[in-house]
Fold:
Amino acid sequence: MKKIGTLSIASALSLMLIGCGTDGQNEEPTVNQETPAVSENETNAQGESSSTGAANAEQNNDAANQDDMQKKMDELEYAEFELEVEYAGDTEYEVELEQKTVGSVKAKIEDSLNHVEKRGNEAFDELHPLVQKLNITQQTKKDEAISDVLKTFNLPTDYTKFDLEVTFNDGTKIEFKDLKK
Structure:
């Protein structure tokens, strides 16, 4: 009787192993026929790219966009622009636009006034035109710089702290700080 039970268990295990298949090296991937496959440049009905296509496109766009951003940064007088404006109620507007030495550009917007947070290309596309409009030079007075920035960035004038640090293309850094109580 024990032999029959052992034989039955061994047979069941053998069938399970056979049913579970191979080591996966020769298997064909399964395709969900309800949803058509999406190529790298196509999107599905919801406007979403396939994960492989999106990853490849994102890498290509990042490289292309980094080149574009680098060229646009070369048009500016500034290699780095950092702005932090704080307001009552723990709200602030903080932006950074920086040309890195490795040939890349860093851009970010953290705006708790309007509940906006952007990074990368999206932040750059918003910041570059604003920074380009500024008339801040190495001879600009503090009050003029603050007024120019607040007007250009459409920020309220009732700040509690204003801190702007600009690094010009020649490496010169200037900083404008103002505290209100």
Summary: The first helix runs from residue 2 to 20.
